């Protein structure tokens, strides 16, 4: 049994009491599960014809996999662009020039405080209204995701660079590097390494938010799996469960990568002298 | 610009709907998140498992899918409804989806906060004979809450912005009105800037307030 700071290793009486609680908890969960089961049963959701489409290879090759490809391609393009956006505006906010610092700060704060969905709507409607250009749903989703996640990543990069001890930059200037060299060779690599877990968790946000494409009819996983598939088979509840499982598996995989990177960076940081012993709270990434 | 001014009443009404949705969902998410955090640190493995499964499921599912499942799955197919009035029903399903989703993030922030409470506090609580629930309620959680005010503020801001996604659950709030007004074709840019300003007015002060509060309430160690 894992030891926690919150309770002692239980003695015989506590073990008995814990077992009683475990039993009660299990009964409670079974009651909830039975309630869900019976509601599904009443609505006929266990009927085989609703679930068999998911073992049909044609459903996978025809709808789910193309949708997944749409989700992953939008997420990939948005991820790359938001990393670029984040580096540019994160460095912009740290610039010594006020004319660079102020616009960068304004842009980052603006896009961080408005909803992604509104940016997606505006990208599509604005492009048509201002330039008469009919923007594809893919582009609108990518623009919305890039502006929001790029702004979040800009703050991540900024935090990463400011957390590097000043001696690093001073040493770099001392050996004769220019400002661009100091940033490119010394500061940015260390900031990216330190912030890698936060960057990867932000990728989970990018991937999840591609589902907003559903609203503007972009052909992604939610659209093909949850709108087109149930339109043929009338199996909206089973479809929701299968689609959610796909999202959860991919995101748990990304989460594991973030966790692994965090452990790795913590291990390498242990060798360096520690500046602070206070445990810090991760800001967390939320969409 | 004219469209915004002539429709000022409905614009303000739509933002009022956003605020109502945010506040009510935040209250439910805070309660549910606290219960989940308690479950995830409980000595009983069944509760820990249930909490972990819930948090991992909701945190990794897109909010769009959560809300769609509420409105299309639970309401239309499973026929579980809050009310016969469609707008009241839509509102409560939006609250259900938003608070179910947000509670997973509240739980994770709070769990991080429990991790920052120093060991001596928990040991002292046990030494004076407090039970698990008592030590959590009287000693651990009050300190944990104070150390995660900042992250909880970010969760609240995210929730405010996430209310726009309830467009898929058929409840009208600010983003819905914005898309309607853009569709009617009365100047895209001013409408977007107007609604963006509305969200900035909601989220920026919240951010400032929570960072001030987290400094003021910080636990001195």
TrEMBL record, chain A:
Keywords attached to this Swiss-Prot or TrEMBL record, sorted alphabetically, are: Cell membrane, Membrane, Transmembrane, Transmembrane helix, Transport
Q: Where, by residue number, does the polypeptide cross the bilayer?
A: 20-37, 68-92, 104-124, 130-148, 185-205, 236-261
The record describes its membrane topology as: Multi-pass membrane protein
* Cell location: Cell membrane
Question: Care to name a GO molecular-function term for this sequence?
Answer: transmembrane transporter activity
Boundaries of each ABC transmembrane type-1 domain copy? Answer: 68-254
Is Transmembrane helix among this UniProt entry's keywords?
Answer: yes
- Tell me, what is an example of a GO biological process annotation in this record? amino acid transport
Primary location group: membrane
Gene Ontology cellular component list: ATP-binding cassette (ABC) transporter complex
* Alphabetical list of Pfam families matching this protein: BPD_transp_1 (PF00528)
PANTHER family given for it? AMINO ACID ABC TRANSPORTER PERMEASE, MEMBRANE COMPONENT OF AMINO ACID ABC TRANSPORTER
Tell me the protein family, please.
Answer: Belongs to the binding-protein-dependent transport system permease family.
- Protein name listed in UniProt: Amino acid ABC transporter permease
What organism, scientifically named, is this protein from?
A: Sphaerisporangium melleum
TrEMBL record, chain B:
Q: Which domain of life is it from?
A: Bacteria
Supply one GO BP term.
Answer: amino acid transport
InterPro entries annotated for this entry? AA_ABC_transptr_permease_3TM (IPR010065), ArtM/GltK/GlnP/TcyL/YhdX-like (IPR043429), MetI-like (IPR000515), MetI-like_sf (IPR035906)
* Sorted UniProt keywords: Amino-acid transport, Cell membrane, Membrane, Transmembrane, Transmembrane helix, Transport
* Cellular compartments per GO CC: ATP-binding cassette (ABC) transporter complex
Q: Specify whether Nucleotide-binding is a keyword of the entry.
A: no
What is its membrane topology?
A: Multi-pass membrane protein
Localization: Cell membrane
What would be an example GO MF term here?
Answer: transmembrane transporter activity
Q: Domain named ABC transmembrane type-1: which ranges?
A: 15-210
Give the coiled coil ranges.
none
Transmembrane segments annotated in the record for this chain: 15-39, 60-78, 90-107, 148-171, 191-213
NCBIfam families xrefs: HEQRo_perm_3TM
Which PANTHER family does the UniProt entry name for this protein? AMINO-ACID ABC TRANSPORTER PERMEASE PROTEIN YHDX-RELATED (PTHR30614:SF37), MEMBRANE COMPONENT OF AMINO ACID ABC TRANSPORTER (PTHR30614)
Family assignment from sequence similarity: Belongs to the binding-protein-dependent transport system permease family. HisMQ subfamily.
Protein name per UniProt: Glutamate ABC transporter permease
Species per Swiss-Prot/TrEMBL record: Sphaerisporangium melleum
Question: What's the source species' lineage?
Answer: Bacteria, Bacillati, Actinomycetota, Actinomycetes, Streptosporangiales
